[in-house]
Amino acid sequence: FMRILTPGFVAHYAGRLVNIHPSLLPAFPGLNTHQRALDEGCKLAGATVHRVTTELDHGAILAQAAVPVLPGDTADTLAARVLSQEHLIYPRAIAGLLAAS
User: Fold this and answer.
1) pLDDT of residue 1
2) Active site residue 21
3) What is the structure's pLDDT at 71?
4) β-strand partners of 50
5) Tell me, which fold does domain 7-100 have in CATH?
6) Element (H, E) at 19
7) Catalytic residue among 21, 34, 50, 58
8) Which of 22, 47, 70, 92 qualifies as a cystine partner to 86, CB 3.0-4.6 A?
9) In the chain, domain spans
């Protein structure tokens, strides 16, 4: 979606919103996560499914998956590997929430 939700919207749906973010939160909230991970020399990158709060990318973590940062990685090659993990953990996190309700 790549949109910051208004506080009123988040409050209206409090506890019922989840987001998938392309970093291992709490590292690298916001944009340009893959390039930032490369710039910092990270050995691992990944994705996080978390509850949405009014503070950007700071809700309770529901699931995470990590991938190695490989020599020669670019933001695009790293993003592709992270995306493959996003496709795995998002449905698992949603299934977990449904099972718990």
Assistant:
1) 66
2) yes
3) 98
4) 19, 61
5) Rossmann fold (3.40.50)
6) strand 18-21
7) 21
8) 47
9) 7-100
